[in-house]
Amino acid sequence: MKSHVRLSYSSQGLQPPVFVITSLSEPQWEAVEMQYTKSEDGQYHFWKEFDAEEGEHQYKYRLGPGEWWALDENKPTGKSACAVRSENQH
Questions:
Q1: Is the dihedral of CA 46, 8, 12, 67 positive or negative?
Q2: What is the CATH number of the domain that holds 23?
Q3: Measured between alpha carbons, how far is 60 from 86 in angstroms, rounded to an integer?
Q4: How many domains does one find in the chain?
Q5: What is the pLDDT of residues 78-87, one digit of tens each?
Q6: Of 81, 64, 72, which Cα lies nearest the Cα of 29?
Q7: In the beta sheet, which residues pair with residue 3?
Q8: β-strands 69-70, 77-79: how paired?
Q9: Three-state secondary-structure class, residue 14
Q10: For the segment 26-46, what is each residue's pLDDT rounded down to a tens digit?
């Protein structure tokens, strides 16, 4: 059964675009640009929603079009078969 999953990310001073690379996307592991809102204080809040089967899913964020990567250090992390750290969504 699929459930609704919302991934979100924000960081002080971060500007669009922000991408999520995830096992949740179709096709998997393709960069997907995140949607965003801007608060009254000028802070951007990025998010993307997916429908996903129950289980563990991995994702990480790419900041801009380059090779700057980020994780939410408050979320559990794991390593892929390529030993790349990524976050787990349960």
A1: negative
A2: 2.60.40.10
A3: 5
A4: 1
A5: 655 443 444 5
A6: 81
A7: 52
A8: unpaired
A9: coil
A10: 999 999 999 999 999 999 999
